[in-house]
Design brief:
Structural class: mainly alpha
Strand content: under 5%
Number of domains: 1
Distance between the termini: 73 Å
Number of helices: 1
Largest sheet: none
């Protein structure tokens, strides 16, 4: 018996949004730490 049930996956846009949020958070916290180091060294 063959079944034509398609496996449900997330759409491609979902992964694009997740990737964008990941890099946004990475850059925010990365630059925040660099600014803190810059001001403490000054």
């Amino acid at each position: 018996m063959s079944s034509n049930v398609k496996e449900k996956t997330h759409p491609k846009g979902f992964w694009l949004i997740c990737f964008t949020i990941l890099w946004e958070r990475f850059s925010y916290y990365g630059l925040t730490s660099l600014v803190i180091l810059y001001f403490t060294a000054s």
